[in-house]
Design goal:
Structural class: alpha/beta
CATH class of the largest domain: Alpha Beta
CATH topology of the largest domain: Rossmann fold
Number of domains: 2
Order of helices and strands: EHEHEEEHEHHEHEEEEHEHHHHHHHH
Helix content: 40-55%
Length: about 325
């Protein structure tokens, strides 16, 4: 198949690698300023508990103009962008150029799918839930290989839903390349709850200065748990999310026990990764909180804790993650 991945960041590179490994022709759409750094290829590192696997990624094509997208026929178009960028003018122009391609929507905001379906026929859209963790390495203040690092958690296949034939082809393409994935018959029911539970906790962690140590004992953690309960109630109303298995996870004791274990098992520094990634996609976090609050008002679901979190998230003072990205880009340009 001929596949276009829109965005060559931490998410786009990982999906593109596995699609290419499955024998498909992969192209990236990127902004012009990133094309030169990617022209000679990129290096990925699959992180494991006991070893790291280097993956040298070459042979993909690069596009920088929507007209170039419209000039070709695509089988699949993967939207590997944060929610706010996906709703921008450039992404909108790309959506207008996909023709009959299957469009894979990976964005976590509860209303993203409605936006995509407003630009592409609903039967062409497949939804996906990202279950891996990826980032530019090394993280600020950490050691590690130079390149794109990612971790595929065991027993956590990517979830995909949509029209039966199209979603089946999407999942088969990933499996052919070695990535675990599965089709779920009702995507919103299966997948809408996880972002609703996690995003308010991420916002609370930012208010705790990204410090995991002592987080579960902080007052803002309690606000985060309350906000997660509210967001889950909204997801249940709006998307029919099945939240039965998630509600027990919103007990303080569960997080006090699980968080240290998770930090010990992961092959990277979780605190640094969360700070780096969610500072970088902060606009997406704000957009998601706004969506839950707005939909809560629509469905009559009280959202006081969500509103407290949203009101306390002031603009970031230091754009340190942008400085880190500039360093990464400089290394890529040097080869």
């Amino acid at each position: 198949m001929k596949i276009l991945v829109v965005g060559a960041g931490a998410v786009g590179q990982v999906y593109a690698w596995y699609l290419a490994q499955g024998g498909h022709e992969v192209s990236f759409f990127v902004k012009a300023q990133y094309a030169e750094a990617l022209s000679s290829g990129t290096t990925l590192y699959r992180l494991g508990r006991w070893r790291t696997q280097l993956q040298d990624f070459r042979g993909f094509n690069l596009l920088t103009e929507p007209a170039a997208v419209a000039a070709q026929r695509w089988d699949q178009v993967w939207l590997a962008l944060p929610s706010d960028a996906m709703r921008g003018e450039l992404a909108t122009r790309i959506l207008a150029s996909v023709g009959g391609a299957t469009v894979i929507c990976l964005q976590p905001d509860i209303e993203d799918i409605d936006y995509v379906r407003a630009h592409v026929p609903a039967e062409q859209v497949v939804q996906g839930l990202i279950t891996f963790i990826s980032y530019y390495s090394p993280l600020p203040g950490c050691t590690g290989p130079e390149g794109m690092a990612y971790y595929l958690p065991p027993l956590a296949p990517g979830l995909f839903g949509g029209e039966a034939q199209r979603v089946g082809i999407v999942v088969a393409a990933l499996k052919a390349g070695g990535m675990t994935a599965k089709v779920v018959p009702d995507f919103d029911k299966a997948a809408a709850g996880a972002p609703a539970m996690m995003q308010p906790l991420i916002a609370a962690l930012e208010l705790n200065a990204w410090r995991l140590s002592g987080f579960t004992a902080s007052s803002v953690f309690g606000v985060g748990l309350d906000a997660s309960r509210e967001a889950l109630a909204v997801a249940e109303k709006h998307a029919g999310a099945d939240v039965r298995l998630l509600k027990p996870l919103l007990r303080p004791l569960v997080w006090k026990l699980l968080l240290p274990l998770i930090r010990q098992l992961l092959p990277f520094d979780l605190e640094s990764q969360l700070r780096y990634h969610f500072s970088k996609v902060r606009k997406q976090t704000l957009l998601m909180l706004d969506s839950y609050i707005r939909l809560g008002k629509y469905y009559g679901v009280p959202t006081p804790a969500l509103e407290v979190l949203r009101g306390q998230l002031v603009p970031v003072q230091a754009d340190w993650h942008a400085i880190h990205d500039a360093s990464v880009l400089s290394r890529l340009e040097k080869g």
